[in-house]
């Protein structure tokens, strides 16, 4: 007799407590390491119960491909959260938007078309090159401040592409750059903490002044931050386009009709534009800079890898000009280095949470409708079966005949199925341009202590917890390879 799906067991997981389930075990920091560790006991598909909600955790490429890709029709929604979606009013943002919402395919189409490779290497090329030059000049002035420089770099690209907005100097004081910097961690704080309103939705009617309604006041404060990131640049863009209609950006492309007059968008289309432009601004802000930070870390302590990249650059590009997008296909070693760095430290190690839209069965396990599905991308890119010796940074694994057989980590690092990152072409291009030109002009070495001894950047290294992680607490030096090369930056 066939069992009904609900009679099948959930995937295994750590032992649960009566009523509260696994709530006491939910890791607060570096979740990707904890889940990878649990997988050694419970296998590549696990389940947690947090009060009455099921979370499925995937830690292998096979399960991720079987479910998030092959069954994308079931696994491509986002979890509904009373705190994030409703009380902080973020349900229209693509990161929270349910796949069953009629706007979902529209948002995706707009973003995929707006951020594709042709756009990244064509109309947005001057934006990426300008941001790269600003970053490299900042490195000349003060290498120690590279984190601020990087956040301004990726924030600046997103703002220019999304709205046509030029960041103001000094960049770290720019209003919109500051807005996004201050918003870091806002959305995770609404979904990673356990709020009872998620399990007893009637609590949302408890007024904010009520002494126990801390969650209402918390959500209201976060709503202000999340709203500002979407409404304020949107208001700036519409106003700017009245006086500056030639500014090319994602926003202006939708705002004007083909004949150059305002397209008189319907209320719905104007809202879609506001939310998708907001997705470029927020989605692009920390991810690319996380990838570049990892490369700075790895390159500064790998002289041999750097020397090989520089030799490749010198033979393909020479020393008389900056590297540009047309060179990318001729620089396979550099491509392997960047790929390996993103495998070694995926910027979004836990990805973004998916959710199911119907009951499902996988390998004899029951996966309920509305389950939260998390994929531990870090665990996959550190699977020793797929990437032998996974903790070693080894770009050679992607080169030569055996390199061709190697599974591409970008299949995981940018997420899955219908939710796969629409910003990937832009991210790849900006990382390539920055790292190639950095090494064309400078050589990186670890920072030195007061006695002139090199400090091992891996010692005392830490990683930020959040949707996007970033290496913290290391320093490096950037020495110009020659005065002539440095001069190209100013040309
Ligand atoms: C190295 C850089 C980047 C990495 C590693 C990265 C990674 C990811 C990942 C893992 C997801 C979740 C996919 C899923 O749910 O399965 C995602 C979603 C997304 N990313 Fe990126 N991303 C990067 C850069 C960017 C950039 C530059 C932009 C925009 C300019 C962007 C915009 C988005 C958007 C809008 C989504 C949400 C898609 C959806 O919910 O349907 N990302 N990204």
TrEMBL record:
**Record keywords:** Heme, Iron, Metal-binding, Monooxygenase, Oxidoreductase, Signal
Q: Which InterPro entries match?
A: Cyt_P450, Cyt_P450_CS, Cyt_P450_E_grp-I, Cyt_P450_sf, Cytochrome_P450_fung
Necessary cofactors: heme
Instruction: Write out the pathway annotation from the protein's UniProt entry.
Output: Secondary metabolite biosynthesis
A matching Pfam family: p450
The record's comment on protein family reads:
Belongs to the cytochrome P450 family.
Spell out the PANTHER family in the cross-references. P450, PUTATIVE (EUROFUNG)-RELATED (PTHR46300:SF7), P450, PUTATIVE (EUROFUNG)-RELATED-RELATED (PTHR46300)
Task: Report what the protein is called.
Answer: Cytochrome P450
Look up and give the organism this protein is from. Answer: Mycena chlorophos
């Amino acid at each position: 007799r066939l069992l009904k799906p609900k009679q099948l067991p959930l995937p295994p997981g750590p032992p649960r407590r009566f009523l509260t389930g696994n709530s006491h075990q939910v890791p607060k920091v570096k979740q990707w390491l904890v889940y990878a560790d649990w997988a050694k006991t419970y296998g590549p598909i696990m389940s947690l119960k947090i009060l009455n909600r099921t979370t499925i955790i995937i830690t292998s490429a096979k399960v991720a491909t079987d479910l998030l890709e092959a069954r994308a029709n079931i696994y491509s929604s986002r979890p509904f959260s009373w705190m994030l979606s409703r009380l902080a009013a973020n349900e229209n943002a693509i990161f929270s938007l349910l796949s069953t919402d009629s706007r979902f395919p529209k948002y995706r189409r707009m973003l995929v078309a707006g951020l594709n490779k042709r756009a990244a290497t064509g109309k947005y090329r001057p934006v990426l090159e300008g941001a790269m030059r600003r970053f490299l000049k900042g490195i000349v002035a003060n290498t120690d401040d590279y984190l601020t420089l990087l956040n301004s770099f990726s924030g600046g690209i997103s703002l220019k592409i999304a709205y046509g907005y030029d960041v103001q100097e000094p960049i770290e004081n720019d209003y919109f750059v500051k807005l996004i910097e201050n918003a870091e961690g806002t959305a995770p704080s609404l979904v990673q903490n356990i709020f009872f309103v998620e399990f007893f939705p009637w609590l949302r009617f408890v007024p904010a002044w009520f002494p126990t309604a801390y969650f209402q006041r918390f959500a209201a404060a976060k709503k202000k931050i999340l709203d500002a990131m979407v409404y304020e640049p949107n208001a700036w863009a519409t106003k700017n386009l009245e006086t500056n209609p030639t500014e090319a950006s994602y926003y202006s492309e939708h705002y004007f009709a083909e004949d150059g007059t305002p397209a008189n968008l319907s209320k719905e289309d104007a809202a879609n534009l506001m939310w998708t432009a907001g997705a470029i601004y927020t989605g692009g802000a920390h991810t690319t800079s996380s990838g570049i930070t990892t490369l700075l870390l790895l390159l500064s302590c790998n002289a041999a890898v750097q020397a090989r990249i520089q030799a490749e650059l010198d033979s393909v590009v020479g020393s008389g000009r900056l590297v540009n997008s047309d060179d990318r296909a001729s620089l396979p070693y550099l491509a392997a280095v960047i790929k390996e760095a993103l495998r070694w430290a995926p910027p979004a190690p836990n990805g973004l949470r998916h959710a199911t839209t119907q009951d499902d069965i996988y390998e004899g396990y029951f996966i309920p409708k509305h389950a939260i599905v998390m994929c531990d991308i870090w665990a996959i890119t550190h699977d020793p079966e797929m990437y032998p010796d996974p903790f070693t940074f080894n770009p050679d694994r992607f080169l030569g005949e055996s390199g061709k057989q190697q599974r591409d980590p970008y299949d995981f690092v940018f997420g899955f199925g219908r939710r796969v990152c629409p910003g990937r072409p832009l991210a790849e291009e900006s990382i390539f341009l920055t790292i190639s030109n950095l090494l064309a002009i400078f050589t990186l070495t670890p920072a030195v202590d007061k006695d002139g001894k090199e400090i091992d950047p891996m010692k005392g290294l830490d990683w930020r917890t959040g949707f996007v992680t970033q290496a913290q607490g290391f320093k490096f030096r950037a020495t110009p390879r020659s005065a002539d090369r440095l001069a190209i930056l100013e040309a």
